[in-house]
Amino acid sequence: MSDASLNSTTQTQPHEAQFGDYFALLKPRVMTLVVFTAFVGLYAAPVATNPIIGFVAILFIAVGGGASGALNMWWDSDIDRIMKRTQKRPIPSGKVTEDEAFAIGIALSGFAVVMLSLATNLLAGALLAFTIFFYVVIYSMWLKRWTPQNIVIGGAAGAFPPMIGWAAATGGISVESVLMFTLIFMWTPPHFWALALFMKGDYHEAGIPMLTVTHGRRATRVHIIVYTILLAILAVGTAFTGVGGPLYLTVAVVLNALFVKGSVDIWRRDEAMAEADGYAVEKKFFKLSLLYLFAHFGAIAFEAALAPFGLGGW
């Protein structure tokens, strides 16, 4: 091989997509939450599910969630190039083209919806299709760039997985599955607003009307404490439903006490205090919010696991 050919190969190699780049399009970290909450919804349902059917259902729900991520990256590629947090994603980094991301997202969406419908039931497939539509069209294409309530309404997209899992097992929707949906729906705003407090520059430069940009950080702090208190009431109340029990109640009381305290700490701070310590309190609250959701759904799963032994629930 000539020196010129070698140099050309060296220059183009960094831009050639690898399997990991295509996988990154599916937002694997977000997919983890989708898979876990969908599994809990399916496992906590009062209907025994064949393990193979259950595995297949979770697999296709995960594929559908990944398809949503790919389509989101396709649509948001322009602002991903601006925001520091997203500049290393496959499209802005030049490893995957927009057309490739769109094709992958559409293909996986259709595949996941059809296969979930065939493997379980039409309701589960329809809910997955609506979730993909909601995340890509309602949230990404419309709400995200139009209103500071983007993350409030758009949070519904991430809240559907446990409902889909429940529907895959039962073929229906119940109070319990709606409560699991609402738990994620109410958790999403304080989770993302805490992130926005220490990432405001990114949203401002990208022209995203996050609450911190349109109403300021003081208003965002007030919104966080209000939503956190409402979330705490909902989360603790869920302990006394069909998916709750003593173990879940213990987890909910402890974590919501910590979560409310964290929101109060955020509310008491001004920007001078936050900047002085590098938004340490806000970052701590954000990290706690990740544990918060996994712990609540983990407790629901444990209650379901104990039920056959007469130990779960009330």
TrEMBL record:
GO terms (BP aspect): heme O biosynthetic process
InterPro entries named in the record: Protohaem_IX_farnesylTrfase, UbiA_prenyltransferase, UbiA_prenylTrfase_CS, UbiA_sf
Membrane topology field: Multi-pass membrane protein
Reaction equations catalysed: heme b + (2E,6E)-farnesyl diphosphate + H2O = Fe(II)-heme o + diphosphate
Domain of life: Bacteria
Known pathway: Porphyrin-containing compound metabolism; heme O biosynthesis; heme O from protoheme: step 1/1
CC terms in the record's Gene Ontology section: plasma membrane
GO molecular function, one term: protoheme IX farnesyltransferase activity
EC code: 2.5.1.141
Gene3D superfamilies: UbiA prenyltransferase
CDD domains per record: PT_UbiA_Cox10 (cd13957)
Subcellular localization, as worded in the UniProt entry: Cell membrane
Transmembrane portions of the chain: 30-46, 52-75, 122-139, 151-173, 179-199, 220-241, 247-267, 288-311
Keywords recorded for this protein, A-Z: Cell membrane, Heme biosynthesis, Membrane, Transferase, Transmembrane, Transmembrane helix
Catalytic EC class: transferase
Subunit comment: Interacts with CtaA.
Role, per record: Converts heme B (protoheme IX) to heme O by substitution of the vinyl group on carbon 2 of heme B porphyrin ring with a hydroxyethyl farnesyl side group.
Further comment found in the protein's record: Carbon 2 of the heme B porphyrin ring is defined according to the Fischer nomenclature.
Name the UniProt record assigns to this protein: Protoheme IX farnesyltransferase
Upper taxonomic lineage: Bacteria, Pseudomonadati, Pseudomonadota, Alphaproteobacteria, Rhodobacterales
Gene: ctaB
